[in-house]
């Protein structure tokens, strides 16, 4: 997988904040009490269940910020499919430093690998159809960039990153504007020539209006598969079609079979379970 890494300058504030939160006011009193300052250690990240890896750069940075002398050898890079028992990476250096950074490194790696794994499960479910799986803005505050990176590691794609990426007219915008036509016309008058306009569609009647006024994409929200097929036929390739609402690996194939271009899923980032990864001391 060609997965460009995120720049370290984006990652360091996140990892530094997490480490400071863990270290508190006195550092790791347990490790300082038990582990001699000169003791060397080696540890391995190992998978305890199958999944897809994401977040190794953040894990490595957690160790380096505590101790630049720590070395980390990656065995399974981000985007790799792993099975239980696989060694993902090995770290070595001061045993104290390894233990201090251990939890922060695992928190990032397990969380982001969980997102990548969840994404991969849906991407696999829709293979054979053209639909791409995309995430949403339903992300953990402060972690959007890395959570969306994890979606890419799992084979998915990203929706907009923020409110300034594109115009996305939702149901509440329409309610305040009074009707869907007025909302689209106001957005078109405001947006620059580089800004795409997407509108949330609840009914086929709304879709007809949106197509008449003119948009770049339509978000077909919580529609039945039958209505999704009708909507795709009505669109006829003129705009991008995106389906959303209660999508799971079990329901995704039928949604993809309707011919939509995108399937957006909020739970990929807001509630994907972590991937169980251990960090164990090598004693030999």
Automatic annotation (TrEMBL):
UniProt entry tagged with the keyword Transferase: yes
Keyword Transferase attached: yes
Class of enzymatic activity (EC top level): transferase
Top-rank taxon: Bacteria
GO molecular function: nicotinate-nucleotide diphosphorylase (carboxylating) activity
GO terms for biological process, alphabetical: NAD+ biosynthetic process; quinolinate catabolic process
Key words, A-Z: Glycosyltransferase, Pyridine nucleotide biosynthesis, Transferase
Alphabetical list of Pfam families matching this protein: QRPTase_C (PF01729), QRPTase_N (PF02749)
The EC number(s) this enzyme carries: 2.4.2.19
Residue ranges of every copy of the Quinolinate phosphoribosyl transferase C-terminal domain listed in the record: 115-280
Reactions it catalyzes: nicotinate beta-D-ribonucleotide + CO2 + diphosphate = quinolinate + 5-phospho-alpha-D-ribose 1-diphosphate + 2 H(+)
InterPro entries in the cross-refs: Aldolase_TIM, NadC, NadC/ModD, Nicotinate_pribotase-like_C, Quinolinate_PRibosylTase_N_sf, Quinolinate_PRibosylTrfase_C, Quinolinate_PRibosylTrfase_N
Subunit structure: Hexamer formed by 3 homodimers.
Entries under NCBIfam families matching the protein: nadC
Function, as annotated: Involved in the catabolism of quinolinic acid (QA).
Family: Belongs to the NadC/ModD family.
Name used for this protein in its record: Probable nicotinate-nucleotide pyrophosphorylase [carboxylating]
